[in-house]
């Protein structure tokens, strides 16, 4: 006779966990020279952040040294970093933008 915990007849299947692509935090770093208005403009232009929020985030970077400004797929994060770095370089500001796996 079957014991109470006999699993005869129970079909088991390994659950394959759904794969999600890794996400990346894009961060702005503080420096002593980039004008505050330039950073606000960068946040509005490349990250679609409204003016009031952009001012808030810029001030977090200014006070804390860095802040996460968005979380994206690897390809989008790379594009954002390249756009910001290129825009800062063209305007001769030392602003740094980096990405890091979440
Ligand atoms: N610290 C800069 C200043 O006082 C402003 C600044 C903010 C620079 C954020 C970079 O990512 C930055 N002009």
Automatic annotation (TrEMBL):
Entry annotated with the keyword Protease: yes
Keyword annotations of the record: Hydrolase, Protease
GO MF annotations, alphabetized: peptidase activity
Spans annotated as Disordered: 1-17
Lineage: superkingdom: Bacteria
UniProt-listed Pfam families: ClpS (PF02617)
InterPro entries, per the entry: ClpS, ClpS_core, Ribosomal_bL12_C/ClpS-like
One of the GO BP terms on file: protein catabolic process
Protein purpose: Involved in the modulation of the specificity of the ClpAP-mediated ATP-dependent protein degradation.
Subunit structure: Binds to the N-terminal domain of the chaperone ClpA.
Matching PANTHER family: ATP-DEPENDENT CLP PROTEASE ADAPTER PROTEIN CLPS, ATP-DEPENDENT CLP PROTEASE ADAPTER PROTEIN CLPS1, CHLOROPLASTIC
HAMAP family linked: ClpS
Family: Belongs to the ClpS family.
Name of the protein this chain belongs to: ATP-dependent Clp protease adapter protein ClpS
């Amino acid at each position: 006779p079957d014991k109470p915990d006999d699993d005869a007849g129970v079909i088991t299947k390994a659950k394959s966990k759904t794969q999600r692509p890794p996400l990346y935090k894009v961060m702005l770093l503080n420096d002593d020279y980039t004008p505050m208005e330039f950073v606000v403009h960068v946040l509005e232009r490349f990250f679609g952040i409204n003016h009031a929020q952009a001012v808030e985030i810029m001030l977090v970077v200014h006070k804390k040294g860095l802040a996460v400004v968005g979380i994206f797929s690897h390809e989008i994060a790379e594009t954002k970093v390249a756009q910001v770095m290129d825009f800062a370089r063209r305007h001769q500001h030392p602003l740094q933008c980096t990405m890091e796996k979440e």
